[in-house]
Write a structure and sequence with these properties.
The complex is a heterodimer of chains A (341) and B (328). Chain A has 341 residues and is an alpha/beta fold. Chain A has helices spanning 4-7, 28-34, 67-75, 99-108, 126-136, 143-156, 173-185, 203-220, 231-237, 255-260, 265-273, 312-316, 332-336, and strands at 11-23, 40-52, 56-60, 82-87, 90-91, 109-112, 191-195, 223-228, 240-245, 248-254, 322-324, 327-329. Chain A has one domain (4-336): P-loop containing nucleotide triphosphate hydrolases (Rossmann fold). Chain B has 328 residues and is an alpha/beta fold. Chain B has 13 helices and twelve strands. The chains are: A alpha/beta (341), B alpha/beta (328). Chain A binds chain B through residues 62-63, 172, 174-175, 202-208, 210-211, 214, 229-233, 235-236, 259, 269-282, 284, 286-288, 290-291, and chain B through 44-45, 158-161, 188-194, 196-197, 215-219, 221-223, 241-242, 245-246, 255-265, 267, 269-274, 276-277.
Chain lengths: 341, 328
């Protein structure tokens, strides 16, 4: 990054050239009999970004764009194929750190998942769920201190300490997501990865959770990596946004710049496609085509078959992600200043 | 108006008898749908919007049952029809588009088989004519090389293409009404825009009325003529889309609009409605929204409000009646 010297001091998370490839080949016998080659799915390729302390950085994209893969690699739930993840300067992938150091690093990173119905153990009471990180990292030792801390956490997410004695099924979707947030906060993390935290919720409940997340960020100086497919939600939450398409980052920009002046043709398309309340009755440009199969992506720029500005160069040459400051875009047309094919 | 509306629902009640007592999923809702009109039905999950759709088309899952009120299609009652009579009507006069195109298509038959079968069931045409009609329909909904794709199975299509096939299937007997239940929820935004445009275009071309059920206010804003906002099995507000979105009258609608993150405008904080929608077994007395309402009065806790005129639209709220009286 060109601005590395200025951001390095405050960057909590630095991701460089992160890639992940999945082997999706058929079994060996099929490959031999059908003479089919090995198949690979490049879920994320050369992803680079950094997040400052107390900042919310969002990744948006449609399904299959690789945003969740990136989230999982950042928290360490998925091994990266190549690239580096540095949390406060410590390389997550190197094996040099001692066990205690890695333990402390993991304590500082937590994750909130999309589905609050699947991410809570139905056989455990809520207080046991929330106490698990406290016990695992030995943050408190006496039972009394643990239960006091659990009560405190429940109040933090606007639930009642008495709710700790209940089971997850006794709560609504929004309340369950509050429990997930309380659990994530139990280990006193500095960095939270939120993978579609409100996608399973209704709008009025979504508003409650988004407001709560903002309040908690202000209170504890939390840093968020926010993953979503909903541009309106992202606009509300994030200061900077990265747009992903078919495993690659195509544009990174400050939130208000991205919405006022989107540069990559895919971002423009995405913004034009969202139905918005303000647009009542207005006709809009629709986008042609669907997302291609990621196992055999188009050559050159992956977006070129759907792009209104594409020409021969786009079909053959992969555009390089060009940074200017903390923003950037990967597009031949933008680089050349081309406005027609 | 001398002509009866295309669809008229009056005081519809849908109940689910359970071991612990009767749950009322739809509690006395009334609305009309004119020919060629697009009526949006919005609400959060559990508001009863899908049940309304399935009640109209006669597909309520037992033990669910229509416990009161009536549904009329062009003046003719359809809520008490026998199963065979209803089956004839379904597909012929009322088409349906469901959320998940993969479950509404039979994976064992080609899409051609499925469309041709539907046409032959409902229209007096030969197999040849049915085939030609199927190809024409698939072309109309934007499936490339429709003639060849007729022999393809549902799994060979992408999600967006499948939903196009389902729309073709819903329209193949020229119904007067299509009920679309969350037709774009399972799709990505870029594809969603295509499908909404398609649904809008083909229904306008065929003069088909649409009951569009969705939780996405943006989709309604773009597609519908009128919108009904549902809460706890009741209609909180109903009226022209523009009025309901720009100047909502019911406190729930006002809160809902403020809770939606917008692409324009700068709001640091979203409006927050405290709590969540009550479960069916614990709907409060009076106005169902009263425990969450900031304008709640004594009357709201005991007496259920009826829809009253509020500008161009209608809303069910006591406070509104009071301000109305104070003003006029």
């Amino acid at each position: 990054m060109t601005s590395a010297s200025t951001t390095e001091a405050s960057a909590v998370v630095e991701v460089t050239a992160l890639s992940r490839t999945f082997d999706v080949s058929k079994p060996w016998l099929n490959r031999v009999l059908e003479r089919s080659p090995k198949a690979f799915l490049k879920a994320a390729q050369e992803i680079s970004f950094s997040i400052d302390r107390g900042e919310t950085f969002a990744l948006v994209g449609e399904s299959g764009s690789g945003k969740s893969t990136v989230a999982k690699m950042v928290v360490g739930l998925l091994e990266a194929s190549s690239g580096a993840i540095r949390i406060e300067g410590v390389d997550m992938r190197s094996r040099k750190q001692s066990g205690a150091e890695m333990r402390d690093l993991r304590r500082r990173i937590q994750m909130i998942f999309q589905d609050p119905y699947a991410s809570l153990n139905p056989r455990w009471r809520v207080d046991r769920i929330i106490a698990e990180p406290i016990r695992a990292f030995r943050l408190e030792t006496s039972e009394q201190a643990i239960s006091a801390r659990v009560g405190e956490l429940l109040e933090l997410v606007r639930l009642h300490p008495r709710d700790g004695a209940k089971y997850p099924h006794e709560f609504s979707g929004g309340q369950r997501q509050r429990i997930c947030i309380a659990r994530a906060l139990a280990s006193k993390p500095e960095f939270l990865v939120c993978d579609e935290p409100t996608s399973a919720l209704d709008v009025s409940v979504q508003a409650q959770i988004l407001n709560l997340m903002k309040d908690l960020q202000d209170e504890f100086q939390l840093t968020y990596l926010f993953i979503s497919h909903d541009l309106a939600v992202v606009r509300h939450m994030a200061r900077r946004i990265g747009v992903m398409y078919l495993g690659r980052l195509v544009e990174v920009a400050e939130s208000h710049d991205l919405f006022r002046n989107p540069r990559h043709p895919y971002t423009r398309m995405l913004l034009a496609a969202i139905p918005d309340l303000e647009m009542t009755g207005q006709p809009r440009r629709t986008v042609e085509g669907e997302i291609p199969n990621p196992i055999s992506p188009p050559t050159g720029c992956a977006f070129h078959p759907r792009c209104p500005l594409a020409n021969a160069r786009c079909a053959s040459e992969l555009p390089v992600f060009r940074n200017d400051g903390a923003m950037g875009v990967a597009c031949h047309a933008v680089e050349e200043g081309r406005t027609a094919p | 108006m001398t002509q009866p509306p295309l669809l008229s629902v009056k005081d519809l009640r849908v109940e689910f008898p359970t071991r612990r007592g009767i749950l009322t999923a739809i509690d006395g809702i009334s609305f009309d749908l004119r020919e060629g009109e697009v009526l949006g039905v919005v609400g959060e999950s559990g508001a009863g919007k899908s049940i309304t759709g399935t009640a109209v088309i006669g597909l309520l899952e037992p033990p669910g049952r229509i416990a009161g009120g009536e549904i009329r299609l062009k003046g003719e009652r359809i809520d008490n029809l026998s199963q065979p009579a209803m089956r004839k009507l379904r597909g012929k006069r009322i088409g349906m588009v469901f959320q998940d195109p993969l479950t509404s298509l039979n994976p064992l038959f080609t899409i051609g088989d499925q469309i041709i079968e539907t046409i032959l069931t409902h229209l007096p045409v030969s197999e040849r004519e049915a085939r030609d009609r199927a190809v024409a329909l698939l072309e109309e909904v934007g499936i490339p090389a429709a003639g060849q794709r007729l022999n393809a199975y549902p799994h060979q299509f992408s999600g967006g293409m499948r939903q196009r096939v389902v729309i073709a299937l819903a329209l193949c007997a020229e119904p007067e009404l299509v009920i679309a239940d969350e037709p774009t929820t399972a799709l990505d935004v870029s594809v969603q825009a295509q499908i909404i445009r398609l649904l809008q275009r083909v229904c306008r071309d065929h003069g088909t009325a649409v009951m569009l059920i969705t939780h996405d206010m943006g989709v309604i804003a773009e597609t519908a003529d009128r919108v009904a906002v549902m809460y706890s099995g009741r209609i909180a507000e109903i009226g022209p889309v523009r009025d309901v979105i720009k100047s909502p009258s019911h406190p729930y609608t006002i809160g809902l609009m403020g809770a939606i993150p917008s692409l324009t405008g700068d709001h640091e904080r979203l409006t927050q409605i405290p709590g969540s929608m009550p479960r069916l077994d614990s709907i409060p007395a009076g106005c169902a929204f009263n425990p969450r309402c900031s304008l709640v009065m004594d009357r709201c806790r005991s007496e259920r409000p009826q829809l009253i005129a509020a500008g161009e639209s209608q809303a069910a709220c006591w406070k509104l009646l009071e301000t109305e009286r104070a003003a006029g």
